[in-house]
Design a protein that fits this description.
By secondary structure, the protein is α+β, with helices and mostly antiparallel strands. The protein is built from two helices and two strands. α1 packs across α2.
Length: 53
């Protein structure tokens, strides 16, 4: 039985932990889908990731 490699990671919740997980996984080469119930939280998470890189 062949196991397929994980290629896409989904993270729900763009707070401190969620955006950190998303950033680390993206840095490891995964495609990351980051979701939250509020757009402003997603915007803030993207800003934090950009600053830390």
């Amino acid at each position: 039985m062949e196991v397929e490699a994980i290629k896409i990671i989904s993270v729900f919740g763009a707070g401190t932990v969620g955006h950190g997980i998303a950033q680390i996984m993206a840095q490891q080469g995964y495609k990351v889908l980051l979701g939250d119930v509020r757009q402003e939280l997603l915007d803030a998470a993207l800003d934090r990731v950009k600053r830390s890189l």
